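Long-time lurker, first post. I've been practising inverse folding by hand and with some scripts of my own, and I keep getting stuck on stretches where the structure tokens seem ambiguous. Below is the full token string for one chain I'm working on. Before anyone asks, I'm not after the true native sequence, just a reasonable design that respects the backbone. If someone could post their per-position residues I'd love to compare against what I wrote down in my notebook.
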């Protein structure tokens, strides 16, 4: 395990900074260190040895008096750092790491002034590379979301955050998962004056995400500075030593695999039909695994070897004018084998990427490789707090913590079956007869053949793809086992075993209760529930209600994706729309997607994000304008991360395809028509609670009455929808 460290030490000459740095470097096995705000005008080898120890080379940018200064250090016996460019805000160079190749590393210390910080973005843009793994770490002196700040003035998505987000999105830069304190800086004040922000972070390019490294970031404790040291840890993914074999779809593409399954299936087994089926499944899967391991090379190696052999034969043909009959036959067979290998690679990546949006034939693209690699990194649980609140990073201990936690959660509960009302809606005799009919073999066969392939296998390693591909061999035993279950109503215990997937409930889960196991039901979680009281409710009544229900009082909360609060919503309350949009762009990047692909993603994914919120909330137009601006930049930016020329205006792109546009629906233009649906509902459903409540206060939404600031949000939305509805509605009098 090796690491790269970035830290704003607030003065490299401090004794406590040196002591803490040596401790971190030792514990985290650090190869490269980027220190910020060193406050050093000059430094020599003796100073470096005093700061971090012997065996370190260095390069630095001097401070301006007692402010600023950047110092980079690297272990001279393991890595080599070649400087490319430096300024008061960054030092960029290529880091040659033993057995890991060359990485481009940028150590940055962003200016607090948004205008000066543009020099940082412009300087980094010149050295963004898609050929090398890129790491950009340090103190950005800028936050990009309201979740990155606690205390102080309310976060505003101003020019600084917008420029930083645009840099990240347009350059296909990504942020990795991190552990430790979310806020990396604190002003160390007390009470209401205390402010905490996430100023320090590590960003990487797609090349790093796609690497075979196990990557994550650690935020270490703030000890000798008001900033956390941040560590990028590089290590290989641990090999899975468990005896777990799962079916690979690519195996079925080899005709020989059918003989392997048939041979394993024909062996006799004893037991009931369910046990016999389990034995045969296990033996067939094991036989396929070892057959594939012994007979076939890695698909990527085979692809490269075949391409080399084909190139050699075609080069010989070009030089001598003709190949022998034997060589011609060999060339043809090699080409056919390469085509088959490429198809198998498609299946292999499709099974790992878990993406179903793109059609057959696109699985072996860099986009799919990127998604599969990113999914592998995101699925890691890096550390977890135990029952004593101690952070644990050992994988076996993490597993024990999760198993114990959910064992205690999932205890048996008694259900009261008395006092339930009679069910008046019952099935008719015909439906009852249909449900009581016995299953037949044809129904099971149809269900198997119509099932979708590419799904994840169960705990036994068998997927629907296995059943579909080898159905002709295995169908009799499968039917006998199912028929035995239908007749005796006894399910084999191995069939009841399942894989429980943990879904994180927060962005950075640190404890077992931050995960939700899918398929398990839960009772009301009091710790996550709250109550919102109106101004008319007295304090004494609030206190009594809270004591009875054990819920906490809240000023605002989210319900079904909508923020509810006893105040008028402002622009800052809808920043999450911009953050979600930027996150989508950042996940996709621009390098692996064509112009047509970007237009499709904008049209069907991005512009659908604000649809729900603009229908039921008064989303400020400035937010929607910013979303459309991001869409325009995403469409026209070039794949080499350069900013592209907007060849066609946004209005033209939003026109129908038959009129020369691309059929994109502007989120600003469709705001009124979306709300018109609610207006029509208000007009037609006069017995509804919504109509009865609002009509008494405001009257008809069809009257030409001005909208006042004191009007409710619901009424403003209905009136706004009426503007779009008025132009298309015609009333007929009889």
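-- Answer (accepted) --
I ran through it position by position. Result:
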């Amino acid at each position: 395990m090796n690491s790269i460290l970035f830290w704003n030490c607030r003065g490299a000459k401090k004794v406590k900074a040196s002591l803490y740095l040596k401790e971190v470097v030792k514990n985290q096995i650090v190869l490269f260190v980027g220190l910020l705000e060193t406050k050093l005008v000059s430094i020599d080898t003796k100073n470096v040895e005093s700061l971090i120890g012997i065996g370190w080379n260095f390069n630095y940018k001097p401070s301006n008096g007692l402010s600023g200064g950047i110092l980079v250090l690297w272990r001279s016996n393991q890595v080599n750092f070649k400087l490319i460019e430096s300024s008061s805000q960054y030092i960029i160079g290529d880091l040659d790491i033993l057995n890991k190749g060359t990485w481009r590393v940028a150590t940055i210390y962003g200016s607090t002034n948004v205008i000066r910080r543009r020099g940082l973005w412009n300087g980094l843009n010149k050295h963004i590379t898609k050929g090398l793994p890129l790491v950009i770490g340090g103190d950005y002196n800028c936050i990009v979301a309201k979740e990155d700040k606690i205390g102080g003035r309310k976060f505003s998505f101003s020019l600084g955050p917008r420029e930083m987000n645009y840099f990240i999105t347009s350059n296909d830069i990504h942020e990795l998962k991190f552990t430790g304190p979310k806020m990396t800086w604190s002003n160390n004040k007390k009470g209401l004056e205390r402010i905490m922000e996430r100023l320090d972070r590590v960003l990487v390019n797609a090349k790093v995400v796609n690497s075979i490294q196990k990557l994550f970031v650690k935020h270490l404790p703030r000890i000798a500075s008001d900033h956390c040291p941040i560590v990028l840890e590089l290590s290989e993914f641990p090999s899975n030593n468990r005896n777990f074999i799962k079916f690979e779809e690519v195996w079925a593409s080899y005709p020989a695999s059918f003989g392997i399954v048939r041979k394993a299936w024909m062996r006799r087994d004893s037991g009931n039909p369910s046990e016999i089926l389990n034995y045969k499944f296990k033996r067939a899967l094991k036989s396929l695994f070892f057959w594939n391991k012994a007979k076939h090379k890695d698909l990527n190696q085979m692809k490269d070897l075949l391409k080399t052999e084909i190139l050699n034969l075609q080069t010989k043909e070009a030089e001598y004018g003709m190949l022998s009959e034997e060589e011609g036959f060999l060339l043809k067979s090699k080409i056919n084998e390469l085509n088959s290998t490429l198809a198998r690679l498609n299946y292999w990546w499709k099974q790992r990427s878990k993406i179903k949006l793109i059609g057959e034939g696109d699985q072996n693209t860099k986009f799919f490789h990127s998604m599969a690699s990113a999914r592998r990194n995101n699925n890691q649980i890096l550390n977890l707090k135990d029952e004593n609140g101690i952070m644990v990073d050992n994988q076996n201990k993490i597993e024990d913590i999760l198993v114990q936690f959910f064992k205690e959660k999932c205890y048996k509960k008694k259900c009261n079956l008395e006092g339930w009302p009679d069910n008046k809606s019952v099935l008719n005799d015909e439906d009852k007869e249909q449900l009581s009919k016995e299953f037949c073999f044809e129904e099971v066969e149809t269900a198997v053949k119509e099932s979708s392939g590419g799904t994840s296998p169960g705990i036994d390693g068998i997927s629907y793809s296995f059943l579909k591909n080898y159905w002709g061999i295995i169908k009799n035993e499968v039917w006998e086992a199912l028929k035995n279950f239908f007749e005796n109503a006894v399910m084999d215990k191995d069939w009841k075993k399942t894989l429980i997937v943990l879904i994180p409930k927060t962005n950075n889960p640190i404890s077992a209760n931050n995960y939700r196991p899918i398929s398990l039901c839960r009772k009301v979680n009091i710790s996550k529930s709250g109550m919102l009281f109106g101004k008319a409710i007295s304090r004494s009544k609030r206190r009594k209600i809270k004591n009875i229900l054990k819920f906490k009082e809240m000023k605002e909360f989210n319900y079904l994706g909508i923020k509810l609060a006893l105040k008028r919503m402002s622009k800052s309350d809808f920043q999450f729309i911009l953050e979600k949009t930027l996150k989508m762009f950042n996940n996709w990047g621009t390098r692996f997607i064509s112009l047509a692909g970007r237009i499709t993603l904008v049209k069907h994914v991005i512009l659908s994000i604000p649809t729900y919120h603009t229908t039921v909330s008064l989303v400020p137009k400035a937010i929607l304008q910013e979303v459309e601006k991001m869409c325009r930049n995403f469409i026209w930016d070039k794949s080499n991360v350069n900013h592209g020329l907007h060849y066609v205006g946004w209005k033209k792109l939003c026109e129908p395809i038959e009129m020369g546009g691309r059929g994109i629906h502007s989120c600003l233009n469709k705001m009124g028509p979306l709300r018109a649906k609610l207006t029509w509902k208000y007009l037609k459903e006069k017995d509804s609670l919504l109509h009865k409540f609002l009509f008494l206060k405001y009257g008809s939404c069809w009257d030409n009455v001005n909208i006042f600031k004191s009007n409710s949000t619901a009424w403003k939305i209905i009136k706004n929808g009426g503007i779009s509805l008025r132009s298309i509605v015609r009333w007929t009098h009889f």
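A couple of notes from the structure itself: The CA atoms of residues 149 and 197 lie 4 Å apart. The first strand starts at residue 2 and ends at 8. Happy to go over any region you disagree with.
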